[in-house]
């Protein structure tokens, strides 16, 4: 399986026994889940101490996160956390709008009985879980989509999709999944499987387009609600 980012960091460990990749993953996770708050200063020495490593892996991780747009560098001020606002979520989601249908087409045209059975297995687990464990649901939902796209010959497109999907998935853990959205996820996944079974490429793409657009809109709406509540609490 590919690494979380588009460019794999060296796997060599430093003196502390910590690999640069694990430092990158840890800092990235903390940014996306809100442990590191928007605009927080990212001091290399402090991060190295927190993660029990030297400063070089931290520098490498921050440069890679800068490339992903999650870390901002300001002259004379250093690195800080990029605010995960509605514009950022919109931009990340739009990558999926463009790439996912492209990746899906090949799967619909070439899916085997075994491929469809695997999708149905994952979907059954999603439905059995019934959104009771949000982290596990996010995992399964990602696996459902990755199963359809992972075989594509265009590995660059798949890697970019995967990176942005993981970002959106991590951001989604910050907000609740509305009951109406839960019902839509189940319905849309089942409609997608039906279209794949029928090898109806146009129908599958239409269902997927609706699915990912609604998912992105839901996250933006929930973030807007959270921002409104936070602003109201500050003014009380």
What does this molecule look like?
The chain is mainly alpha-helical and 236 residues long. Helices cover 69% and strands 4% of the residues. The chain has nine helices and three strands; from the N terminus they run αβααββαααααα. The chain has helices at residues 20-32, 44-50, 55-67, 86-110, 113-129, 134-149, 155-172, 179-197, 201-235, and strands at 41-42, 71-74, 78-81. The chain has a three-stranded antiparallel β-sheet with strand order 1-3-2. Strand 2 (71-74) and strand 3 (78-81) form a beta hairpin. The radius of gyration is 19 Å and the shape is globular. The model is unreliable at 1-17 (pLDDT under 50).
List keywords for this structure.
mainly alpha, 236 residues, globular, 3 strands, three-stranded antiparallel sheet
Summarize the structure.
With 236 residues, the protein is mostly helical. The chain is built from 9 helices and 3 strands. The chain has helices at residues 20-32, 44-50, 55-67, 86-110, 113-129, 134-149, 155-172, 179-197, 201-235; strands spanning 41-42, 71-74, 78-81.
Shape: globular
Q: How much strand?
A: under 5%
Estimated structural class? mainly alpha
Strand order of the largest sheet: 1-3-2
Distance between the termini: 48 Å
Order of helices and strands: HEHHEEHHHHHH
Q: Please state the CA-atom Rg, rounded to the nearest Å.
A: 19 Å
The parts where pLDDT drops under 50 for at least 5 residues are: 1-17
Characterize the main sheet: 3 strands, antiparallel
Helix content: 55-70%
The number of helical elements comes to 9
Quote the average pLDDT: 87
The total strand number stands at: 3
């Amino acid at each position: 399986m590919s690494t979380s980012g588009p460019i794999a960091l060296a796997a060599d460990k430093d003196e502390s026994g910590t690999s640069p990749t694990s430092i990158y993953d840890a800092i990235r996770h903390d940014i996306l889940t809100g442990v590191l708050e928007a605009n927080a200063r990212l001091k290399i020495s402090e991060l190295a101490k927190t993660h029990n490593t030297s400063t070089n892996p931290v520098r490498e991780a921050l440069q890679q996160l800068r490339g992903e747009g999650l870390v901002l560098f300001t002259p004379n001020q250093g690195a800080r956390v990029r605010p995960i606002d509605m514009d950022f979520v919109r931009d990340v989601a739009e990558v999926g709008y463009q790439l996912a249908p492209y990746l899906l087409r090949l799967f619909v045209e070439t899916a085997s009985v075994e491929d469809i059975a695997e999708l149905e297995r994952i979907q059954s687990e999603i439905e059995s879980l019934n959104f009771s464990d949000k982290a596990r649901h996010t995992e399964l939902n990602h696996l459902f989509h990755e199963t359809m796209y992972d075989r594509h010959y265009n590995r660059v497109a798949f890697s970019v999709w995967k990176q942005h999907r993981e970002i959106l998935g991590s951001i989604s853990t910050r907000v609740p999944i509305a009951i109406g959205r839960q019902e839509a996820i189940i319905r849309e996944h089942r409609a997608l499987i039906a279209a794949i079974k029928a090898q109806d490429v146009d129908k599958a793409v239409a269902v997927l387009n609706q699915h990912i657009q609604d998912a992105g809109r839901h996250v933006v709406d929930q973030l807007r609600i959270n921002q409104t509540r936070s602003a109201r609490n500050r003014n009380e």
